[in-house]
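Page 42, continued from yesterday. The earlier attempt failed because a stray header line got pasted into the input along with the sequence. Redoing it now with the clean sequence only.
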Amino acid sequence: MSDISKIQNGEHMTLREQIGLTARLAVPAILAQLSSIMMQYIDASMVGRLGADQSASVGLMSSSLWLFWGVCSTITMGFSVQVAHEIGAKRYDRARSVLRQGISSSLVAGIVIALIGLAIAPVLPYWLGGDSSIAENATLYFGVFVIALPVLTMNYLAGGMLRCAGNMKVPSLLNVMMCVLDVIFNFVLIFPTRVIDVASFHLTVPGAGLGVLGAALGTVAAECVTASVMMWYLCRREKGLTIGLRPFKAFLPVKEVINKAVKIALPMTAEHVVFCGAQIMITVIVAPLGVVAIAANAFAVTAESLCYMPGFGIGDAATTLTGQSYGAGRIDLVKRFGYITVAMGMSIMTVMGGVMYFAAPLMMDIMTPVVAISQLGTEILRIEAWAEPMYAAAIVAYGAFVGVGDTLLPAIMNFGSIWLVRIPVAAVLAPTVGLRGVWIAMCVELTFRGSIFLWRLISGKWYRNAKKHISAEVVADVDAAIPEEDFQ
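This time it went through. Structure tokens are written below.
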């Protein structure tokens, strides 16, 4: 019997088994995050070879793209967390019904969000403080990504469903495949046809020479291929979630599922909008500092993501473990997995922070040959390295809270931290200290945020609230074997 089955079956788990299960779920999730970060590195390093203006056009739009991607991702989590609860309670028919409703609802949401993005794409670079020298490329880069949002939303849904079902390996492997495809597509689409000397041979490499547009097209193409394979595996191969051909009405959302999805996803979506709104505000603060500052800020954000990538991977594992423990009514495991995952995340990201501090010059040199950008990026990365342990506490604790559906107060905590600490401090320091002041503000805010998330974790209110919900649902559990047709 696998350890994750012990959660569902109410079996006793030793501390060693709990730590081992956490590690087995976290490692594939970390690899999935690593592949995603490597895609950003690939895009940044390839575009960085085109010059400062092209780098700035990509960097200017990064925070806005995170906003649109993140909204699509948080919407899908409203359904994925429900699947974790249903699987934890061994209600597989209901899990499949939630999956079908999640597919239709998320697809519609992705289309609506894409249309909004296309409507603002021509003017967005100017809203963010960019000038005409980078606006055209910025619009093209942003527009390609938002057109693909419906497909990318399906990718988020499939990956989230598989992870919440306890399958970390397939999303990880497919994300590695996506990284490889991204390299290939970008290599062909960004650069023009050129001759490369390989062992005394002249090798002609075909290329489209599309520059910034090619970077967007290459990444989107890789993500679309991956989304197709991931959705096929989820719907046709994943045990407990396989769905066959069903009438159209089986995909129509019902009130019970939508209400739960909204309750889970709305605070997360609002929190993400607020967070990315703050990131966009940071971009507005940085834009007047010049092209070098814009590019250095964007590249440093990408470089830092390699450091906090393990935190998000472990956060995904925390959501799975606390979610399935919650669904099984195992509050003892909900609490224990919260502590184990946060401790693991803080330990790993402390080490990664040290690595980033010493490797910062190499990380920046990989992404850009422009000395001024590389030097400034190195300085701000070394500022940020000090915040990584507490950033880990915030990331992983948030993942644990999401698993039990505790999303409202954590969203408010994120909102208060970034808008009441980071933005004011950055606005005060940027005019006098420049980009370094913006990253000092970020370091202070992440340390504060980690502290308040640790406080909530230790206080126990998040899992005590979950215990109340479980007690309230005891009567409903008598009807757990409702035929799937009735649940639809």
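Notes: The first strand starts at residue 192 and ends at 198.
Reminder to self: strip header lines before submitting.
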